[in-house]
Batch of 4 targets.
Target 1
Amino acid sequence: MPYEPPTPPAGLPAKLVDTLNESPPEQLRDVARYAEGLAEHREREARLEKESGEDDIEERPDNLPDDVPTKATITIKEINDNRYYYWQWRDGDKVRSKYKEPVNPDD
């Protein structure tokens, strides 16, 4: 049974397949190394772009205490018929809270 050349991927443009079929083995190896490096570079760029988008955190509010993370939200708790604002955030499996101020009834 004679050795058959590999079948090109369906998505490759015919012009590229023709160029590769006409290339000598050493040039094909160079192309393979370049293509692998280029693919890694583009994947890394896409990953970094995605990660930088996830890191686009709003600036820290001026009234946010130093020991409260920027991901904290404000919640209202009612204690003895009085309402209070609290900073609240998740810390692992726990929900943490820190007193902020009383709720102004005029708001």
Target 2
Amino acid sequence: MKIITLCGSTKFKKEFGEVNEALTLLGHVILSVGVFVHSKELKIKPSQKVLLDEIHKKKIDLSDEIFVIDVNGYIGSSTRSEIEYAKLKDKKINYLSDNNCPYNFNLKNISN
């Protein structure tokens, strides 16, 4: 059992849910995004954006690894920052788009 933080654009709310469910059913503890800003076109203050980024990096600190939800290979600036942070913290990184991902669920059903 691993603790895995999901990272990716918040416009992929549906994919976050599907990956969360699949990894949970494999027996992992999943930490995810708390606010899906882009999926709802939610307006937040700059200070709230900073706070959300800090919270998500704390989740990465608590994790064994991160799972990047890079639908169609998309990685935005916030996600890129989270990946770099995870690398600095020596966290394992897996990607939805990676056909060699070690998890035994059908990634193609999730990412298409």
Target 3
Amino acid sequence: MNILDYLTGNTDRHPENWGFLVDNETNRCVSLYPLMDFNQCFHAYDTIEGANCQTVLPKRLSQRAAALEAVEHIGLRQKKEMDLDLFEDMALEREMFQKRLLNLNRGQ
């Protein structure tokens, strides 16, 4: 999630902000919810570092540092190329997304 939050500039990921899919028959956790609470995307999106990463507290890391740490542990398994047309009239956000993705790819 730290990788995705860094790429999208989501500044609202904290320990109480996670979703889980649960098997209703067994009441067991199946997985993390694929996308959870991304209404704060593209905040603190004017620098390559991003905001302070809340998911690693009490450690103090930027979103970039936390994402690079995650890439180091699990890699960056991009399934397909990003359709940058999705950014439509958001040229600055598209540019920062590309910079951050390139930054993570170089960090591998």
Target 4
Amino acid sequence: MKYSRLTKEQFEELHKEFINFLATQQITASEWENLKVNKPELAETELDVFSDLIWEGVLNKAEYLEHISAKHMYLFYLGEENMQAIVINLKNDVDITTTEGYNWLRENLMDENVEFLQANKDYTEDKNLDKFKMIEQGAVITKGDLFKYFDKLIN
């Protein structure tokens, strides 16, 4: 398994897609029930393969990631050749994960306690695995509104 297995809730949301996946494997509903009981290791493999397929599709489409903590905002554009990062660091005791802290940041972008950094990072041989590792570390896929806003502001 390349990524991680989908959660029970995710499998429930993707129920129709999973049925279609099983159909492409020429596994009927009754055969699936039989697999789960008599060959659980094979059923587990099918769940893993389906999970990887879903992750691969999601990661192929992902263009922006964000990871926001109390003192740091990491914004990524996932380009074809590399990732572009914008990092906002706070050097004071403001917590930008709170409404008050986020509002403070919006109103004080040019304050001496706000530091902007930019960088590009090349992907390894496996671009999607790079993206997935960032998600595992807490990044979330977004539409990129924050990245675009700060990119315009500092460039």
